[in-house]
Write a structure and sequence with these properties.
The protein has a single domain, classed as L-arginine/glycine Amidinotransferase, Chain A (5-stranded Propeller). It is built from twelve helices and 21 strands. The longest helix has 15 residues. 51% of the residues are buried. It has 363 residues and is α/β, with parallel strands linked by helices. The protein has a four-stranded mixed sheet with strand order 1-7-6-5, with helices on both faces. The chain has a four-stranded mixed sheet with strand order 4-3-2-21. Strands 8-9-10 form a three-stranded mixed sheet, with helices on both faces. It binds 6-aminohexanamide.
Length: 363
């Protein structure tokens, strides 16, 4: 594996869209006891369901610690590869490499990871093992690695259409805990250099209460070029209403990199999901404080799905909005099987199915 200090765009690389073909997918087995209730017992089962759903149409690699290696091997079928690798937690979207291609090969980008805000408002300390994963994964997948370690970015904070457009949120990318020394224009230029994009669509916000500073992957996702789903509520008393409405206004008034108007599909949210007493009781403390409080609202959204080669793996919450959300995704992805996974035990960790996956494109 070579470490590259040039920039991907100038070398002819770009980031494909998630709906383009993949050669595989990476996940990390959960065990952190202040993220996952009861040391991750239920979370591991939910992660295993996600892995199995993806493995129906792509090669899945799961990174597990020495302590969890046996559990992972036991819970996951033989066609899923398990490798031992250290991490601080289990969010492959945010610290596995972002892969780019030039049509002949893939390379990985190693961003700087600081646990969603570093010492400003990060969610845990230290994050050193997470931050080293991209490099190890490039090595494992035989991909040269672009060193972008001077720039803080998580994979969940960006979505691309593979045709020059990127969507993100100001709440995250312009936050003090990411790259406060850079202007919005400098951040755009960095994204362009790294991902080969020429247009950034800046949404203001994401999902209410999303502890990542409102990653885009919970509020809005491309389903094809110039077509997105947007997390939506019709409840005007919900703080999410104004946030989603503003996103809609921005998307309706934007054009993508190719000058096309963007079609927006409203994907209605489940009723608010709150942390229960049992879940809270199973969590260890962070820095002498409770990791979560009973009644805290979680950032539940159907937009946090993963687009696999022949399937879309989506979260279910046991809500009456589950089936309508499935139906909408069935209509939007007629070529793919929609596979729901009951995801409450992932959501209580602070993210969802998209956040725990990272696709490896084919070149
Ligand atoms: O949503 C994500 N991409 C990560 C969520 C991290 C939450 C940590 N508790």
């Amino acid at each position: 594996m070579k470490v590259l200090h040039t920039n991907p765009r100038d070398d002819g690389f770009h980031m494909p869209a998630e709906f383009e073909p993949h050669s595989g997918c990476i996940l990390i087995f959960p065990e952190r006891s202040d993220s996952w209730a009861y040391g991750g017992y239920k979370a591991r089962k939910a992660f295993a369901e996600v892995c199995k759903a993806i493995a129906k149409s792509e090669k899945v690699t799961v990174c597990a610690s020495f302590e969890q290696y046996e559990n992972a091997r036991y819970l996951l079928p033989d066609n899923i590869r398990v490798v031992e690798m250290s991490s601080n937690d289990a969010w492959a979207r945010d610290y596995a490499p972002t892969f780019v291609t030039n049509g002949k090969k893939i390379c990985g980008i190693n961003w700087s990871f600081n646990a969603w805000g570093g010492l400003e408002n990060g969610l845990y300390f230290p994050w050193d093992k997470d931050d080293k994963m991209a490099r190890k994964l490039c090595d494992l997948f035989d991909a040269d690695m672009y060193d972008m370690s001077g720039f803080v970015l998580e994979g969940g904070s960006i979505h691309t259409d593979g045709e020059g457009t990127l969507i993100t949120t100001k709440a995250c990318l312009l936050s003090k805990g990411r790259n406060p020394h850079m202007t919005k224009e400098e951040i755009e230029e960095k994204l362009s250099e790294c991902l080969g994009i020429s247009k950034v669509i800046w949404l203001e916000n994401g999902i209410y209460g999303d502890e990542t500073d409102e990653h885009v992957d919970n509020i809005c996702a491309f389903v094809k070029p110039a077509e997105v789903v947007l997390a939506w509520t019709d409840d005007k008393n919900d703080p999410q209403y104004a946030m989603s409405e503003r996103c809609l206004e921005i998307l309706e008034n934007e054009r993508d990199a190719k000058g096309r108007k963007i079609t927006v599909h409203k994907l209605r949210l489940p009723k608010p999901v709150y942390v229960g007493e049992e879940e809270c009781g199973g969590l260890d403390t962070v820095d002498f404080r409770p990791a979560r409080t009973v009644g805290e609202r979680l950032a539940a959204s159907y937009v946090n799905f993963y687009i696999a080669n022949k399937a879309v793996v989506m979260p279910f919450f046991g809500d009456e909005a589950d089936e309508p959300a499935r139906k909408m995704l069935e209509e939007l992805f007629p070529e793919r099987e929609i596979i729901p996974v009951y995801a409450r035990d992932i959501l209580t960790g602070g993210g969802n199915i998209h956040c725990i996956t990272q696709q490896i494109p084919v070149y």
